[in-house]
From TrEMBL:
Transmembrane segments: none annotated. InterPro entries: DEGP_PDZ, DEGP_PDZ_sf, PDZ, PDZ_sf, Peptidase_S1_PA, Peptidase_S1_PA_chymotrypsin, Peptidase_S1C. Keywords: Hydrolase, Protease, Serine protease. Pfam families: PDZ_2, PDZ_3, Trypsin_2. It comes from Urochloa decumbens. GO terms for biological process: proteolysis. The keyword Nucleotidyltransferase does not apply. This is PDZ domain-containing protein. One of its GO terms (molecular function) is serine-type peptidase activity.
Length: 493
């Protein structure tokens, strides 16, 4: 054996075991900060909102960071009834408290009150965003194992990913194995610093070993957002629907010069501050001084480009941004306050139970993505009625309190004979008055129960239902009104 490749005998530790090599030393100390997350969930039943689904248990991974806090995925603790954490070197499970949860970025922040949990543990340090082909090590507790698991790979892609419905944030694609239970576990670089946390893998039949990691820029944004305001306020959006300007005829029609590049504004969210500045048919040329390409990308790092939504996601709710646009061949600059737009069909209810209203057997509910999943399953996009699906993907809320109200179902009773088959039909108006939201509908119905009810449905049918009186109707059929304390603003008069 050549002298320059020969190795000296491994030194002994105080236990008589050989010390790990240099590479292992850089990673192993960080593993003590990895914890197993145990959660008991009790999800609302959105199809039968007066009930709750049967509770179930799940497990995931987490990592201890500074400030006596633990980082994990939001989906690991969503609708939690109880959360417990167990350290690698302990046989005790400690009760945890959820401090903040960001469903758009799939990050949650936990803490433990028991001082014993924090004894002798060092929080991980965050590393910089890795480069392509940098080595990463994913640590966690996949497939229900009680001992820690380590998988290795490299960063194969860095891009903006769709985390939650329409949310586009920075993400890392890696080829290290990520399985159920790895969620929330850290990904370390070769110096033992955390460069992200695992959150999902690609389960397509035509892919292999593709996993995704939430990188440190998103994590630090979440933490700083929480520290600034005491709660998670979200990643802001510019509030527009846009399209690429790669077609030369389109560019010519819009009066763009050869050296001008940008994206075309199709629509502007009415509930965002941008609606007071930007207009459809505007061409956004730059964001905060960074020129936007015709394909919607901006310079990222040397030799790389990334979607310009990355620049927006770096901001905080309430921050201002300078947007340069071309309108009617003239250049304008606007200082726009960034915010989170109100979705007509929200992606979640921030962990709150659903609100509902029952009168004369008609069950009224506000539509949300959890409601659609409850009604039509995980792949609801294929089964939802076309009119609801169009509103889900394309309609915009005109005001911050607007809701899409539907007759979820009709509970059979003598008073509603002939209407039992109505389900998931939008309520357009009541007695000729537009229905703005569920609270608005409740107010109108409660004031005239002894009169005729008129419900304008999305397919144009008018339902006329005569009640005897408010008292008689209550006696004859089920009349209920749910005002959970957590969502009382939704319905209280």
């Amino acid at each position: 054996m050549d002298s320059d490749t020969a190795r000296s005998p491994s030194p002994k530790t105080h236990c008589g075991e050989p010390e790990p090599d240099a590479d292992a030393c850089r990673v192993l100390p960080c593993m003590d900060a990895v914890v197993k997350v145990f959660c008991v969930h009790t999800e609302p039943n959105f199809s039968l909102p007066w009930q709750q689904s049967r509770q179930y248990s799940s497990f995931g991974s987490g990592v201890i960071i500074g400030g006596r806090r633990v980082l994990t995925n939001a989906h690991c603790v969503e609708h939690h009834t109880q959360v417990k954490l167990k350290r690698r070197d302990s046989d005790t499970k400690f009760l945890a408290t959820v401090l903040a949860m960001g469903r758009e970025c799939d990050i949650a922040l936990l803490t433990v009150c028991d001082d014993e949990f924090w004894e002798g543990v060092s929080p991980v340090e965050f590393g910089a965003l890795p480069a392509l082909q940098d080595a990463v090590t994913v640590v966690g507790y996949p497939i229900g194992g009680d001992t820690i698991s380590v998988t290795s790979g490299v960063v194969s892609r860095i891009q903006t990913l769709q985390y939650f419905l329409t949310s586009e944030l920075l993400g890392l694609q890696i080829d290290a194995a990520i399985n159920y239970g790895n969620s929330g576990g850290p990904a370390f670089n070769d110096r033992g610093k955390c460069v992200g946390i695992a959150f999902q893998k690609d389960t397509s039949d035509d892919t292999d070993n593709i996993g995704y990691v939430i990188p440190t820029p998103d994590i630090t944004h979440f933490i700083e957002d929480y520290e600034k305001s005491g709660e998670y306020t979200g990643f802001p959006e510019l509030g527009i629907k846009w399209q690429k300007m790669e077609n030369p005829d389109l560019r010519k029609a819009m009066g763009m010069k050869r050296d001008q590049k940008g994206v075309y504004v199709k629509r502007v969210e009415p509930t965002t501050p941008a609606s007071g500045c930007l207009q459809p048919s505007d061409i956004i040329l730059s964001f905060d001084g960074v020129d936007i390409g015709n394909d919607g990308t901006v310079p990222f790092r040397q030799g790389e480009r990334i979607g310009f939504s990355f620049l927006v996601s770096k901001k905080y709710t309430g921050d201002k941004a300078l947007v340069k646009v071309m309108r009617d061949s003239e250049i304008h600059e606007f200082e726009i306050t960034l915010a989170t737009p109100k979705k007509l069909i929200p992606g979640h209810l921030k962990g709150m139970p659903p609100s509902y209203y029952i009168v004369a057997g008609f069950v009224f509910a506000a539509v949300s993505v959890p409601y659609l999943r409850s009604e039509y399953g995980k792949n609801y996009e294929y089964d939802v009625p076309a009119k609801l699906l169009v509103k889900h993907f394309h309609a915009m809320a005109e005001s911050c309190d607007e809701q899409l109200v539907v007759i979820s179902q009709v509970l059979a009773a003598d008073i509603n004979i002939g209407y039992e088959d109505i389900s998931n039909s939008q309520v357009v108006s009541f007695n000729g008055q537009p229905v703005k939201n569920l609270k608005n509908l409740v107010t109108m119905v409660e004031t005239c129960k002894d009169k005729f009810f008129k419900f304008g449905l999305e397919f144009g049918q008018i339902v006329i239902l005569e009640t005897k009186s408010a008292k008689a109707a209550t006696q004859d059929i089920l009349t209920a009104r749910c005002i959970p304390s957590a969502v009382s603003d939704d319905l209280k008069a």
